[in-house]
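#help-structures
NK: newbie question, is this the right format to request a structure? protein is Glutaredoxin-related protein 5, mitochondrial
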Amino acid sequence: AAAGEAEGGSGGDGGGGSSGSREAVERLVREHPVVVFMKGSPAQPLCGFSNAVVQILRLHGVRDYRAHDVLQDADLRQGIKNYSNWPTIPQVYLNGEFVGGCDILLQMHQSGDLVEELKKLGIRSALLDAEKDQDKK
C-alpha cells in the first residue's frame, strides 16, 4: 500500500480522476492565492451570496482571482463541500486555506481582517487607498 500512496493514493474509490475528488479540489484551491467557488461567474453571479462575495472582493480591488462555477460541475459542487466540510456555496480560499462563505467574508470585511489577510498574500486592498483619499479631504 505504501507504494500506492507515493503516487497521491486516490484510495480505493476508483474515481481518482473526478473533478470532485479530494486531489482535484486540492489542486484547485492551491492554483491561485485567491480562489472562489461560486454559483455563476464573477461577471454574472447566479445567487445573492455569490454576488456578495464578488462585490466584497471588488471593493478591495481584488481583480485577479480564480472563480469556479459549481453549477457547471455537480462533482465539484459536492467535492468542495466535502473538502471544506462546509455545506454551502460560495466558498473562499486564501492561500489554499478555507476562509468561509459570504457571511464570514462579510465579517472579515467589516472588521478589517480581510485587509490584513490580503496583505499576507501580497495584495494591497483598494480600501486602504480609499481611506487615504478621505484623509486628504
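mod (FA): yep, format's fine, and the C-alpha cells are attached above. The two ends are 67 Å apart (CA to CA).
NK: thank you!
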